[in-house]
Specification:
- The complex is a heterodimer of chains A (about 280) and B (about 250).
- With about 280 residues, chain A is mainly α.
- Chain A has one domain.
- Helices cover about 80% and strands about 0% of the residues of chain A.
- Chain A contains eleven helices and no strands.
- Chain A is globular.
- Chain B has one domain: P-loop containing nucleotide triphosphate hydrolases (Rossmann fold, 3-Layer(aba) Sandwich).
- Helices cover about 40% and strands about 25% of the residues of chain B.
- Chain B has twelve helices and ten strands.
- The longest helix of chain B has 16 residues.
- The chains are: A mainly alpha (about 280), B alpha/beta (about 250).
């Protein structure tokens, strides 16, 4: 396979990790977040910083997970006081704050970003395989979690957190766990991205990325791991297939989002379920 | 013997309205008490304070001898409390069985890490089926809650509360919106729950049904306790009659 195919597979894997991790926060636990790129970016910057300082690959990746997870925990505390629209606005703020902060930090390369990230030593094929393996592990964890009791608790908190408390579910703890886990995985995606590109700049983690990730979740089917994976795959491949309309990429995403919300609010997962039911009825 | 519920000087004000004004009372273990009063008397507010949904400005709440005043709702549930809501609030993304199974697994969901490591729901499902059968909802297990009529949703509220194995059950208008037949059946279920050993506080407007099962009534008006005792005695008290019928009713009777 060509280097191009490996790079598309790598980006697809990273997007899958990001979309599935955002689905843990917004789909499973019902906390609408429009700042996921900030956690992706903080993981990328932490990994890049430590990698450039000579830290071995596994430790640099772990540092990305920890930094993003801790930042997610802090934003999670905001979710304890804010709900719905107010939380969405706050997470948008986090997205802009992150880019604004990084742009001004000389020790993080400011506008120029970090460019001296050493190679992982795996080559382009090895990188792509590592990323796909991490994406598969993230999918497996998400599927398990949704079927475990914590996933059951998340659903209750997402449905009605006050009622969840009345049957003994500590809703605040669940929200913090969702944010920490979801953002930790986003940090892993950031670390993998840093090793994949060996060069990161603040604009790679802007608000548009957050919105694109939310589009993957909504189009795939909020709350469905496999639907969200399909959403991530489609929205990664679409721009590749429609390179000739690159300037209108966001228009296509926006149009898709409007169509899904209007005609299939449960996304691809909902359409799939309906199709299976129709086949069974026959 | 330690009281199941001890309320001591509880008060709360909303703007210029003193919704609950220094209420003190106690409910003994095994009692089935009716908490009644006219609209706006402060009944639901008091229940929400007991449940920890609202924070009182003054006073203390104890459940089975343990002071729970500063605890969040979920920790009060761990101390034996369960509540049902005046307006039904099922988890709409779940089936009937899932709603009750989740409550039956409250010891697992109480700790997120424990919940992450647990997968099997078999034991909790069995318990949930038993509870559903106990409130007359057998056969509805796999239905979406959106498909249930109000009468069954009211029972689901009770089933979900029972599934957390409470020692103290607070029911907020469990008969509201039900027809006479449904109300009579629901009150029979509540009586049976109480005879099973669960201390029960029942907020209800349907006095005829309340009097049928409760041996004691506490009457609230304008945030204060104005009557407490056996139903016949309490209803005969002038202050209670005035609160319900209006001033002048007792004079006219005299």
């Amino acid at each position: 396979m060509s280097a191009y195919v490996y790079s598309v597979l790598a980006i697809m894997g990273i997007n899958i990790i990001l979309a599935v991790s955002l689905n843990i926060i917004s789909g499973f636990c019902g906390q609408f977040s429009l700042g996921h790129a900030a956690f992706y970016g903080s993981g990328a910057y932490a990994t890049a910083y430590f990698a450039a300082a000579g830290t071995p690959v596994p430790l640099a990746l772990v540092s990305g997970i920890i930094v993003a997870g801790l930042l997610g925990l802090v934003v999670g505390f905001a979710s304890l006081r804010l709900r719905d629209d107010f939380l969405a606005v706050t997470t948008i703020g986090v997205s802009f704050l992150f880019v604004g902060f990084v742009r001004k930090q000389a020790w993080l390369g400011a506008e120029m970003g970090i460019s001296k990230i050493p190679p992982s030593g795996l080559g382009s094929k090895g990188n792509a395989l590592l990323i796909l393996a991490c994406a598969l592990a993230t999918i497996a964890f998400s599927l398990y979690m949704n079927r475990s009791w914590i996933g059951f608790g998340f659903r209750a908190v997402g449905d009605d957190e006050n009622t969840a408390r009345t049957i003994g579910v500590p809703a605040s703890q669940y929200k913090l766990v969702a944010f920490t886990l979801g953002t930790g995985f986003a940090g892993l995606a950031g670390g993998l991205y840093a090793y994949f590109t060996q060069f990161i700049v603040p604009d790679s983690f802007g608000f548009i990325v957050s919105v694109t990730l939310m589009a993957m979740v909504v189009i795939g089917g909020t709350g469905s791991t496999l639907g969200v994976v399909a959403g991530a795959v489609i929205l990664t491949l679409l721009p590749e297939a429609f390179r000739f309309v690159d300037n209108y990429r966001l228009l296509i995403f926006g149009g898709l989002l409007v169509l899904v919300v209007r005609f299939a609010p449960r996304g691809l997962a909902g359409l799939g379920r309906t199709a299976v039911q129709m086949v069974r009825k026959r | 013997m330690t009281a199941a519920l001890e309320i001591d000087g509880v008060a709360i004000r909303f703007g210029g309205v003193q919704a609950v004004a220094g209420v003190s009372c106690s409910v003994a273990r095994g009692e089935l008490v009716g908490l009644i009063g006219p609209n706006g008397a402060g009944k639901t507010t008091l229940l929400r304070i007991i449940a920890g949904v609202l924070k009182a400005e003054a006073g203390r709440i104890s459940i089975s001898g343990k002071d729970v005043t500063g605890l969040p709702t979920e920790l009060r549930v761990r101390n034996g409390l369960a509540i049902t809501h005046q307006i039904v609030r099922p988890f709409r993304s779940m089936t009937v069985l899932e709603n009750v199974t989740l409550a039956a697994g409250h010891r697992i969901t109480a700790h997120p890490l424990r919940a992450l490591l647990r997968y099997s729901r078999t034991a909790e499902r069995t318990r949930a089926r038993d509870v559903l059968a106990g409130v007359g909802l057998a056969g509805t297990e796999d239905k979406a809650v959106t498909a249930l009529p109000l009468g069954q949703l009211k029972r689901l509220e009770v089933a979900r509360a029972l599934a957390v194995d409470p020692t103290l059950l607070l029911l907020d208008e469990p008969l509201a919106g039900l027809n006479r037949k449904e109300a009579a059946a629901q009150i029979d279920v509540i009586g049976a729950i109480n005879r099973g050993g669960v201390t029960t506080v029942l907020i209800e407007h349907n006095l005829a049904e309340v009097v049928r099962v409760c041996r004691r009534l506490i009457v609230l008006d304008q945030g204060r306790v104005i009557g407490d005792g056996a139903p016949r005695d309490v209803i005969a008290e002038p202050a209670v009659r005035e609160a319900y019928v209006g001033k002048g009713s007792t004079d006219a009777a005299a």
